[in-house]
Amino acid sequence: MQFDVERATVAGRPALTVRGELDLATAPRLDTAVDEALQRRVDSLVVDLTHTTFLDSSGARTLLTVARKAESAGVGLVVLAPRTNGPVRLTIDLLDLGAFVPLVASAGEIPTGIAGRDAGT
Questions:
Q1: FRET label pair with 60: which of 13, 86, 87, 93, CA 20 to 30 Å apart?
Q2: Alpha-carbon span 51 to 21, nearest angstrom
Q3: 12 exposed, middle or buried (CB, 10 Å; 0-12, 13-18, 19+)?
Q4: Does the reported pTM lie above 0.85?
Q5: Which CATH topology does 4-118 take?
Q6: pLDDT of 76-99, one tens digit each?
Q7: What are the residues facing 76 on neighbouring strands?
């Protein structure tokens, strides 16, 4: 599968959907896409890993960097990684990435505080 990061909407929020392997070769493309999203001054951002087929330590490190950038910009970030996506969740769980990156297993778990910020409240 070819790697791609596409702009989308998840649960009514701006999102970046990652398809393919998020690894040393492709992680910089996600980082660039996040920079572009942050330049658009979004209030919240979802990084959707539902269609990501593999996540290595470089991809995990990029998710940490993305979380820091979003926090610095005052953007509510959520990383969507369904529990059914075994290859991605294995890396996330082994590295305890959820302790450092806002992580949800489904769009329904996205905190409502982010939705309120999107609505201007």
A1: 13
A2: 9
A3: middle
A4: yes
A5: Transcription Regulator spoIIAA (3.30.750)
A6: 999 999 999 999 999 999 999 999
A7: 44
Phi, psi values for residue 119, rounded to 5°: -80, 0
60 membership: H or E segment, kind and range: helix 57-73
Two structure tokens written together for 113? 């505080």
Alpha carbon of 72 to those of 18, 66, 77: distances in Å?
22, 10, 11
Cβ atoms 36, 73 nearer than 8 A: no
Cα 59 to the center of its chain, rounded Å? 11
Could you report the per-residue pLDDT of 44-54, keeping only the tens digit for each?
999 999 999 99
